[in-house]
Write a structure and sequence with these properties.
Blueprint (H helix, E strand, L loop, with lengths): L11 H13 L45 H18 L9 H16 L1 H13 L3 H8 L5 H10 L13
Helix pairs in contact: 3-4
Length: 165
Protein backbone atom coordinates (compact mmCIF):
# COMPACT_ATOMS: atom_id res chain seq x y z
CA UNK A 1 0.00 0.00 0.00
CA UNK A 2 1.37 3.44 -0.84
CA UNK A 3 2.98 5.16 2.12
CA UNK A 4 3.46 1.96 4.09
CA UNK A 5 6.78 0.27 4.62
CA UNK A 6 7.32 -3.43 5.29
CA UNK A 7 7.14 -4.27 8.97
CA UNK A 8 10.23 -5.57 10.78
CA UNK A 9 8.28 -8.77 11.51
CA UNK A 10 8.27 -9.68 7.81
CA UNK A 11 11.25 -9.67 5.50
CA UNK A 12 10.77 -10.41 1.80
CA UNK A 13 14.43 -11.34 1.59
CA UNK A 14 14.06 -13.84 4.45
CA UNK A 15 10.86 -15.26 2.92
CA UNK A 16 12.66 -15.72 -0.42
CA UNK A 17 15.61 -17.38 1.28
CA UNK A 18 13.32 -19.71 3.24
CA UNK A 19 11.40 -20.63 0.09
CA UNK A 20 14.53 -21.38 -1.93
CA UNK A 21 15.99 -23.48 0.86
CA UNK A 22 12.85 -25.37 1.91
CA UNK A 23 11.15 -25.91 -1.47
CA UNK A 24 14.07 -26.12 -3.88
CA UNK A 25 16.98 -27.13 -1.65
CA UNK A 26 19.01 -24.06 -2.66
CA UNK A 27 21.27 -23.02 0.20
CA UNK A 28 23.65 -20.69 -1.57
CA UNK A 29 22.60 -17.89 -3.88
CA UNK A 30 23.15 -14.19 -4.32
CA UNK A 31 20.81 -11.34 -5.16
CA UNK A 32 21.92 -8.97 -7.87
CA UNK A 33 19.36 -6.34 -6.95
CA UNK A 34 16.13 -5.84 -5.06
CA UNK A 35 13.24 -3.86 -6.50
CA UNK A 36 10.52 -2.24 -4.46
CA UNK A 37 7.59 -0.14 -5.44
CA UNK A 38 3.91 0.36 -5.11
CA UNK A 39 1.16 -0.38 -7.56
CA UNK A 40 -1.72 2.13 -7.54
CA UNK A 41 -4.39 -0.48 -6.93
CA UNK A 42 -8.03 0.26 -7.43
CA UNK A 43 -7.40 3.30 -9.60
CA UNK A 44 -9.34 3.16 -12.81
CA UNK A 45 -8.54 5.98 -15.17
CA UNK A 46 -10.88 6.71 -18.02
CA UNK A 47 -9.62 5.59 -21.38
CA UNK A 48 -8.52 8.55 -23.44
CA UNK A 49 -10.50 9.29 -26.54
CA UNK A 50 -9.16 8.70 -29.99
CA UNK A 51 -6.50 6.21 -30.93
CA UNK A 52 -5.04 5.71 -27.46
CA UNK A 53 -5.99 2.79 -25.25
CA UNK A 54 -4.73 2.25 -21.73
CA UNK A 55 -3.55 -1.23 -20.80
CA UNK A 56 -2.24 -2.82 -17.64
CA UNK A 57 -2.40 -1.03 -14.32
CA UNK A 58 -3.70 2.32 -15.68
CA UNK A 59 -6.61 0.42 -17.22
CA UNK A 60 -7.42 -1.41 -13.99
CA UNK A 61 -6.02 -4.81 -15.00
CA UNK A 62 -4.14 -5.32 -11.74
CA UNK A 63 -6.44 -6.86 -9.16
CA UNK A 64 -6.56 -4.63 -6.10
CA UNK A 65 -7.06 -7.43 -3.58
CA UNK A 66 -4.00 -9.37 -4.71
CA UNK A 67 -1.75 -7.01 -6.68
CA UNK A 68 -1.70 -9.68 -9.38
CA UNK A 69 -1.90 -8.61 -12.97
CA UNK A 70 0.32 -10.61 -15.34
CA UNK A 71 -2.23 -13.00 -16.88
CA UNK A 72 -4.97 -10.40 -16.51
CA UNK A 73 -2.93 -7.95 -18.60
CA UNK A 74 -2.27 -10.70 -21.16
CA UNK A 75 -6.01 -11.44 -21.43
CA UNK A 76 -6.74 -7.71 -21.66
CA UNK A 77 -4.28 -7.16 -24.51
CA UNK A 78 -5.46 -10.31 -26.32
CA UNK A 79 -9.02 -8.98 -26.16
CA UNK A 80 -7.94 -5.56 -27.43
CA UNK A 81 -5.94 -7.11 -30.29
CA UNK A 82 -8.80 -9.42 -31.21
CA UNK A 83 -11.39 -6.65 -31.33
CA UNK A 84 -8.99 -4.40 -33.23
CA UNK A 85 -8.40 -7.14 -35.81
CA UNK A 86 -12.08 -8.01 -36.20
CA UNK A 87 -13.69 -4.56 -36.04
CA UNK A 88 -10.87 -2.10 -36.72
CA UNK A 89 -11.39 -0.54 -33.29
CA UNK A 90 -10.02 -1.81 -29.98
CA UNK A 91 -12.66 -2.50 -27.36
CA UNK A 92 -11.50 -2.70 -23.75
CA UNK A 93 -12.83 -5.71 -21.85
CA UNK A 94 -15.36 -4.84 -19.19
CA UNK A 95 -14.73 -6.24 -15.71
CA UNK A 96 -17.45 -8.26 -14.06
CA UNK A 97 -19.22 -6.19 -11.40
CA UNK A 98 -19.64 -9.23 -9.17
CA UNK A 99 -15.88 -9.44 -8.59
CA UNK A 100 -15.81 -5.78 -7.55
CA UNK A 101 -18.58 -6.67 -5.09
CA UNK A 102 -16.50 -9.60 -3.77
CA UNK A 103 -13.38 -7.43 -3.49
CA UNK A 104 -14.88 -4.54 -1.54
CA UNK A 105 -14.95 -6.14 1.96
CA UNK A 106 -11.51 -7.70 1.49
CA UNK A 107 -10.02 -4.36 0.42
CA UNK A 108 -11.57 -2.76 3.49
CA UNK A 109 -10.00 -5.48 5.62
CA UNK A 110 -6.57 -4.96 3.99
CA UNK A 111 -6.82 -1.23 4.67
CA UNK A 112 -8.06 -1.32 8.26
CA UNK A 113 -6.79 -4.64 9.62
CA UNK A 114 -4.00 -6.13 7.46
CA UNK A 115 -3.18 -8.79 10.05
CA UNK A 116 -6.77 -10.03 9.92
CA UNK A 117 -6.59 -10.00 6.10
CA UNK A 118 -3.49 -12.21 6.18
CA UNK A 119 -5.36 -14.70 8.39
CA UNK A 120 -8.30 -14.61 6.00
CA UNK A 121 -6.11 -15.29 2.95
CA UNK A 122 -4.33 -18.17 4.71
CA UNK A 123 -7.69 -19.64 5.68
CA UNK A 124 -8.97 -19.22 2.13
CA UNK A 125 -6.05 -21.17 0.68
CA UNK A 126 -6.32 -23.97 3.23
CA UNK A 127 -10.11 -24.29 3.06
CA UNK A 128 -10.22 -26.31 -0.12
CA UNK A 129 -9.02 -26.32 -3.70
CA UNK A 130 -6.10 -23.85 -4.04
CA UNK A 131 -6.40 -23.87 -7.85
CA UNK A 132 -10.02 -22.79 -7.53
CA UNK A 133 -8.97 -20.01 -5.14
CA UNK A 134 -6.38 -18.81 -7.67
CA UNK A 135 -8.93 -18.94 -10.52
CA UNK A 136 -11.35 -16.97 -8.34
CA UNK A 137 -8.72 -14.35 -7.51
CA UNK A 138 -7.95 -14.10 -11.22
CA UNK A 139 -11.69 -13.66 -11.96
CA UNK A 140 -11.92 -16.80 -14.09
CA UNK A 141 -14.64 -18.64 -12.17
CA UNK A 142 -18.31 -19.21 -12.81
CA UNK A 143 -21.01 -18.26 -10.32
CA UNK A 144 -21.47 -21.97 -9.41
CA UNK A 145 -17.74 -22.32 -8.67
CA UNK A 146 -17.81 -19.12 -6.61
CA UNK A 147 -20.75 -20.37 -4.58
CA UNK A 148 -18.92 -23.62 -3.81
CA UNK A 149 -15.70 -21.77 -2.97
CA UNK A 150 -17.31 -19.10 -0.80
CA UNK A 151 -19.15 -21.85 1.06
CA UNK A 152 -15.79 -23.34 2.06
CA UNK A 153 -14.11 -20.04 2.95
CA UNK A 154 -14.28 -18.17 6.27
CA UNK A 155 -16.44 -15.37 4.82
CA UNK A 156 -17.71 -14.46 8.27
CA UNK A 157 -14.24 -12.98 8.87
CA UNK A 158 -15.23 -10.31 6.33
CA UNK A 159 -18.21 -9.30 8.41
CA UNK A 160 -16.29 -7.99 11.41
CA UNK A 161 -17.99 -4.73 12.48
CA UNK A 162 -14.68 -2.93 12.95
CA UNK A 163 -14.02 -3.18 9.21
CA UNK A 164 -16.95 -0.94 8.35
CA UNK A 165 -15.80 2.05 10.45
Amino acid sequence: MPGRTPTPEFSFEQATSDYLRQVWGVNEYSSLSVERGSIPLGIRLRSPRGRHVRIGCPAGAVKATTGYGFTRILRQTQHLASTLASTGSPDAPRPSPRFRWYDRPLLTMWEHDPEHAVHFMKAAFTSGDADLVLDFLDERTTFAQERRLLGSMPVTMLLQPRLWI
